[in-house]
Amino acid sequence: MSSKVVHWLQDHETRLFHFVNQRIQHHFLDQFFTKFTHLGGATASIMISLCLACFGQGSLRIAGFQALLALAISHIPVAIMKKRYPRLRPYLVHPQTITHKNPLTDHSFPSGHTTAIFSVIVPIVYALPMLGLLLIPLAFVVGMSRIYLGLHYPSDCIVGCLIGTTISVVTIAFWG
Known about the structure:
Layout: H1 3-23, H2 27-36, H3 42-55, H4 59-84, H5 90-93, H6 112-127, H7 132-148, H8 154-175
Subcellular location: Cell membrane
Membrane topology: Multi-pass membrane protein
Protein name: Phosphatidic acid phosphatase type 2/haloperoxidase domain-containing protein
């Protein structure tokens, strides 16, 4: 890719990051995104998957096991990419970034929270497609929260979405 294209992409991504992180700031959104971001965290994603696997019935039980497997597998490429492409978190690069409590210090690329939420919701939506109307937007909210809270660039979240979705689809395909 030419350096002009890379520079253009970085410039537009930085602008989008600043828009989400600074321009749309509001007390309600601070509370909203601070709560919803945790759905992509380890505790919530593992607990949701375990509860479905242990207590779900029929296709939801299978979805729980698929989500657990996808969750575990999807974090292998995330860990590798974080080491191979050590991208600093936005708040470390852009001093005007608005952050909230306890900003992370590991590398930014790709978003583990976004990877996790998509790893968990895809098997559930496959099992009960109508839940997609609720769960897919919810997963995008988790990704958006990571940008809003100053922890990730948009491409971190896009790649996390792609990793989580792809690993889940492959897990579902091989499960059957």
